[in-house]
Amino acid sequence: MIAKEARTEVLPEVLPLTKNKTWSKVWSFRHIYLFMLPAFIWYLVFCYYPMYGILIAFKDFKYNLGILGSPWEGLRYFEQFLSDSSFYSVLYNTLSISAIKLVFGFPAPLILALMLNGVMHGRIKRIFQTISYLPHFVSWVVVVTLMQKILSPNVGLINDIRDHMGLDPIFFMGKPELFYPLVVISDIWKGVGWGSIIYLAALTNIDPHLYEAAEMDGAGRWSKLFKITLPCLTPTIGILLIFSLSGVLNAGFDQIWLMQTPATLGVSEILDTYVLKTGIQQGQFAYSTAIGLFKSAISLLLIVLVNKVSKKVSDVSLW
Amino acid sequence: MRKTRMKRTLSLTLAVPLLALSLTACGGNNDSGTSSNSGTTNTTNSTNANSGNSNESAAPEQVTLSFLSAWNGGGGGFPQDQENNPVAQAVREKTGVTLKLESITTSEVEKLNTIFASDTVPDIVNAPYWSTTGGEGQVIKKAALEGQLLDLTPYLDKYPNVKKLMTQGVAKDFAEFDLNSPDLEGKQYVIPMQTPDGTPESIHNWNYGLYARGDILKALGVNAADIDTQDKLLDLLTKIKSGDFKDISGKPVIPSGTMHNGWDYSQFLSGWSDYNISDFRQEDGKLIHWTQSKDQEARLLYMRKLITDGLFDPEAFSNTDTTAKEKLATGKLAVFGAQSMIGDLQKTLYKTNPEMQYELLGPMKNKSGNIVTQVEKPGRSGFPVIFLSAKIKDPDAALRLIDYLNSDEGRLLAYWGIAGKTYNMADGKPQWIADVKKQFDDNPDVKRDEGLNYLSGSFMGAFSSEVTWPIPEDQKTQWEKLEASYSKRLPIQIIDKVSASYLVRDWPKYQEFRDETSSLNFDEEFRKACYAKSDDEALEILHGIQEKFKAAGVEEMAQYVAEKAASRDDIGW
């Protein structure tokens, strides 16, 4: 009630009656828009301006002619990719890694947030939160180097322990069957704390009266979780799921590129690493741009579809 | 109301710097021509340092040029003080040129593609140029044809030393088909570097081979020279594995391995090699492309055996330069395949554990029963090259520098430093000053920081310091003697023929073949097969990539080459 009164006090001041309401509204909130301006410029310069570069996908790119001056090639590179012998394996690997990450990695931050939310001791909760955030700030180069050191068959800690137990060393990073588990575990370790922030914020927004009422009705911990917490988090989960599904073709370039070894190439070659190899290593810029564009087009299609489905099923949507 | 005003003031205080910051970050630095030179930008900086000076007309114009060594780890020879080391100062006095050095620790071909695609070619670049049909050479040639490189042809008469580099020490067939290929239309874009002076003695011996830790061989009672076949090598590695040998920290050794990214695992398979100078092999009376050789199966199965039996470092193919050198420095590898690596070992393992000094195995015997060694043509085929950016503002300054460094005076400066300070002339030959030599021998980094490695390593061609200034036996360091002893056991094999690989250029389907095979990587598939779950699966991977080459027309290509070669008597496989 107090909040409502405060709002009615402010509104007449910031919304003077003028002919052009939109612009006057913008002017009234100019300070807020000023805050947005750097981000807007950032998107313009680093995301939208370079976007004309996708033209390379349809051109026979020549250094001296530049992107606009190079001759058109039509859909040649898209056809080349679709008929490439690596196409299916690369797509399969990308989708597999994304799917596994989604199944195991998506619920992890939610579970952590729920667990942290259950910790009553404020100091301990903050310590756990901080510890879980820290890996997010460590680059993949460092994470993978650490993994290589710890899991090395020659000097690694794990194999040293195995050696003391009389067991043969295992080349963990070189076992195709261990590649996906290692990818998922390291991905969760690195991102779970950071990913839980949004859920923790959403959890604080749940009206405590709901829990009090439920307790009075004799609800236990699990009942409260399934009857109050999760339903209240559904919009947040829905939005994050839409984002995750739209990025299903982004299996995580940095991580995969660094973890890739000749031994695991069969299961680790994904669209992004393939783009790098054909583009930067083999100099086939047009071909690799076509692959990148193919990936972006599929991602866009996915986000539209998933959003539509989500809107229909759960009333949660991005637009 | 006061609160609202305060909020607004606070918001503005925060937002304005943020906005300013983002605009600054986004803005281009348009006044870069006035001062700083970043490594990857075209920033030839020309300012006359002597303006107002009475010697103005005689002094060379002062110019700063960016230089990129596009070699993975190529910055190893760069002095700590790039601009004011004694050699750089002397070069500046003579030529007016100051170099801003940049190097890479990533893939050469990636760097080249990046600088060409982003139009950030440094003024001078030194890069690998093994062939114009693949790898770095192909990238450089494409860039030359598409206007990224400066055509040097109009300048050559003005710089006789540079002109000499274009031909001397270059293999005839490489000069004809690669360096001056018809599609370059008579233009010359690259300057060969590290080429021999035209004599066989000046061809550098890289001493590729297999090296085993001496103390381990001693403990096993094995004579290094006796290990010269694949079977004997396998037997030795098996003995090492069961011998419970340790590295310097008391941890088990790895029976065998390589340097970074599997360099050079082919040394473990050299029993299947031959004295080849082309992509073609004669098998069962028929000419075939190397990818189709029957030996590939045997090579693969042997490599797999080494890996599955725990005789070869499973991490060898994913070793970084750092991890590989760490293994080397700790004596972790009982046997390694590469060059002798004395430069690194003398600073590390040979200092801490001299008893572990590596010994050259064999030399191994190849499939013809000859020793496995370096095969060369009378001139060099494929070498590092220097090229200049098409946008270089002062090409004459760059060529003046290269011309000077390849003069007698410039070579003395680059290799020996300052007369009277680091060397003296005796009987027309430079001799190190004793104290200086001791410092250099004790710590090679002192020599590097004196500026005595980077110019000789990147700017010299048609020359051999070993031939011009042979070091008397009594003045050689123990490491130089050791390296020379390896070279003696691995004499270079010279084949004076034209490579059959060049005949394929006239094949009508050549371009089509190249397009179809451009994304195929035989070596990558071979490495993948080495780690397959079973031999059958490994062979399937191998046959898969062989089939792809076959489907691209490799058999028809070999047949065409065989027919062309039949009409000439100067073709070598």
UniProtKB/TrEMBL annotation, chain A:
One of its GO terms (biological process) is transmembrane transport. It comes from the Bacteria. GO terms for cellular component: plasma membrane. The chain crosses the membrane at residues 32-58, 90-116, 137-158, 178-204, 225-249, 285-306. It is found in: Cell membrane. Residues 91-306 form the ABC transmembrane type-1 domain. InterPro entries: MetI-like, MetI-like_sf, UgpAE/MalFG_permease. Keywords: Cell membrane, Membrane, Transmembrane, Transmembrane helix, Transport. The keyword GTP-binding does not apply. It is a multi-pass membrane protein. PROSITE patterns: ABC_TM1. PANTHER family: BLL4140 PROTEIN. Belongs to the binding-protein-dependent transport system permease family. This is Sugar ABC transporter permease. It comes from Paenibacillus montanisoli.
UniProtKB/TrEMBL annotation, chain B:
Residues 30-60 are annotated as: Disordered. Gene3D superfamilies: Periplasmic binding protein-like II. PROSITE patterns: PROKAR_LIPOPROTEIN (PS51257). Keywords: Signal. It comes from the Bacteria. The keyword Signal applies. The keyword NADP does not apply. Residues 30-55 have a biased composition (Low complexity). Transmembrane segments: none annotated. Residues 1-27 form the signal peptide. This is ABC transporter substrate-binding protein.
